[in-house]
Structure formats: C-alpha cells, structure tokens
Design a protein that fits this description.
This protein has 382 residues and is of the alpha/beta class. It has 13 helices and 14 strands. Helix 2 (41-60) runs parallel beside helix 12.
Length: 382
C-alpha cells in the first residue's frame, strides 16, 4: 500500500511539473484594439505596425520574464460596437493580461465598463480627458489630455495678440471633449469665443460653417477633430480665401493630415504635438532624444513610411505594460495594474509619464510643443 501511495504521489508531482512547464512555455498575451481600417486608419495602422514591431523586438531580445510575448490585435474600424466585441474576445477567449488601445475616444469609453468589470488593465491610445478623469481603477492612457492641448493653443494665441476665437469641432467623442475644454478654459486664458460651429466626422464640405465664421470678429480659428474633417476645413478655408490663423488639435499630428489637406492648404497651420513628429529638431541633450531617434529609425526602415504621433502612443502603451510586468515580476493583471499606477519617470515617445492613484494620464503640458506646417513638413517653434 505504501509503495502505491508513493507511486501515486510521483504521478501527481509529474503532472504538476508538466502543467507548470506548459504554463511557463505559453506566451504572455497582450491585447490590442486599433482602427487599422476605416476612416481613422491613419491612427490605427501605425499603432498596429508599432505593436507587431515591438512584439518581434521583445521576443528577439529574450522575451518578457523569460517568456515569449504575443500581441493580439483586433481592428475595430473606428466603430465603438466593434471595439466592444473585440474586448469581449480578448478578455474571455484570448485571456490577455492587459489591453492597449483603442485608437479612438468613443471606442475607448465604450469598453471602459468591460475592462473595469473584468479587472484587466487598459492603456488607451485615445486623448479625451474623460477617459482617465475621474480616475478609473483599471484605465490609463498615453496621449496628452485635450485640456493640455487647449492650454498650449491659447498660450500661443495670446502671445500673438489674439483674443477673439472661432471654434469648429467634430460632433464625435473627441471633438465634443475638445469643445468642452475650449469653452471651459477660454475665460481664464483671456479668450472670447465669438463663433461656435460643429461638423460631422464624415462631412465633406465645411464652407457653410467657415462662411459664418468669416462674418464674425474672430481673429483665429481652432479646429478640433481627427481626419478627414480637419483636412476638409483646411481645403475649404483656402478656397474661401480666409486669412485668419488656423489652429488644429493634436488629433491631426500625422503626415496623413498634410497629405489629405494638400501641402499648399496646410501651409502655416499651427498645432500642439509631441516631439516625435519633429524628432530631428529635438536637441541632442533632451531626455527623449534617444527614444525618439531609435523608434523613428526602426519604424521608418521597417515600414518605409514616416512615423506618426499615433504609432508613438502604441509604443508607449506597450512599453508601459512591459515595464510594469518587469517591476512586478508578474503577469497577473492586478500586479501589472498596481505597477502601472506607481510608474514614475518613464520617458516614452509622448513625454515623461508619472502615474499615481490620482493621475492615470501621467503627462504634463511639457509633453507638447507647438509646431507649424512649413513647406509640407513640421517645424517645431522655439
């Protein structure tokens, strides 16, 4: 009987060892939801490219905590309903330890209840302030808050002697969030909004809104949205020969905007952006320089296209997850979440991240510089 018991225990131990070894051999699965196709593919395609590039880099360098990494990407086509379907698959079927994305604010807000209920950390690649404010326990983000972008624009406008502003914002989640911030921060910035116009994300003509703005006392126009709408505004403004300074949000910080608007129509447009799109103009001593240069070199060599701010958001999100897992020495979602919340001094492509229990956005106004489109390229203003 004693020999039988010992033999039984040996079998149990052997099976346990095999189970543990199998678990150890399984890849660490990180989920991603990007708008790879559809009207916002200029956001999601560089994010998807960046995710797969990082997956290869991490695995080539030995993996994460001794295991391979698998980044499972779903395309939501810039559709909030499809983002909800994707997050269900990632959580229930793919058993991911964390999720990065979505690309858009609307899709992100749609999946927040899902990740909160499942207790899976989410690092969004969308900008709306309400994604991370008020703080949700399991939700973080990498783009700069729209409030920081508004402040940067207002500071520049004020320094140029401008105080009467027309705003033209998209009717989607990103545009609505920007409109709220533009209105809320106007008074303390010394700005008066003399015209408040809205456009649909799929509108192909903005001449009616711009004609109404032209008839006001506006000294400058601020447009808030993502392509194609802002590019249409740029073209229509040129057609109507409106000479007012034109500011855009960081939602167009991509070469695709210049392409869609046409370099001649985009000339002189101003916007707040991360330093990535003007990497060559960043001083050698800046803490981001090596990160920006390395990412730019690898991405452009691999994909034969310029980097964009949006791919940088994905780089930051994935690297934040990886660094959190390393610090926690765990791939348990709760451990990753806790480590994310204690991230300090992490320099990404967007800026320096300092998360806390009170701040899941982690960036300050210093993550922005003002850029001007000059001869079809980005000029960083000093």
């Amino acid at each position: 009987m004693g020999k039988q018991i010992r033999a039984g225990w040996l079998v149990v131990l052997a099976l346990a060892w095999l189970h543990t070894s199998a678990q150890a051999a399984e890849p660490i699965r990180i989920g991603a939801i990007f708008s790879v196709t559809g009207p916002a593919s200029f956001l999601g395609e560089p994010e998807r490219n960046t995710a797969k590039m990082l997956e290869e880099q991490v695995n080539r360098d030995g993996g994460l905590l001794g295991r391979k990494v698998e980044i499972i990407v779903y395309d939501d086509e810039y559709d909030a309903t499809k983002a909800v379907t994707a997050v269900d698959r990632l959580i229930k079927r793919d058993r991911v330890v964390a999720i990065v994305g979505p690309s858009g604010s609307g899709s992100t807000l749609a999946i927040v209840p899902k990740v909160e209920e499942a207790k899976i950390p989410l690092i969004s690649c969308a900008a709306a302030k309400k994604i991370a404010e008020p703080v949700k326990r399991w939700v973080f983000k990498t783009p700069q808050n729209d409030a920081l972008a508004v402040k940067k624009i207002y500071q520049h406008a004020k320094s140029a002697g401008l105080s009467k502003i027309a705003i033209l914002t998209a009717s989607d989640a990103f545009g609505a969030a920007g409109r709220d911030e533009l209105k809320e921060l106007a008074v303390q910035a010394g700005m008066t909004i003399v015209s408040d116009e809205v456009f649909g994300p799929k509108d192909t003509d903005m001449t009616a809104q711009l004609t109404r703005i032209k008839g006001t006392a506006a000294q400058a126009i601020i447009v808030w949205g993502t392509n194609p709408g802002p590019a249409v505004v740029a073209r229509n403004r040129a057609q109507l020969k409106i000479g007012l300074p034109l500011y855009m949000s960081h939602g167009v910080a991509s070469p695709k905007f210049i392409e869609l608007a046409g370099p001649e129509n985009a000339e002189g447009i101003l916007l707040p952006a991360g330093r990535l799109i003007a990497e060559a103009q960043v001083p050698a001593g800046h803490p981001q320089k090596a990160i920006l240069a390395g990412y730019t070199k690898e991405y452009e060599a691999r994909f034969k296209q310029p980097v964009s701010t949006f791919g940088g958001y994905a780089w930051d999100a994935i690297m934040l997850v990886a660094q959190a897992a390393k610090r926690a020495q765990s791939t348990e979602p709760a451990a990753i979440r806790d480590a994310l919340e204690t991230t300090r001094g992490f320099w990404g492509t967007t800026g320096e991240f300092n998360f806390s229990a009170e701040d899941h956005a982690g960036l300050t106004e210093d993550a922005f510089v003002m850029v001007r489109i000059t001869k079809g390229n980005w000029e960083m203003l000093r």
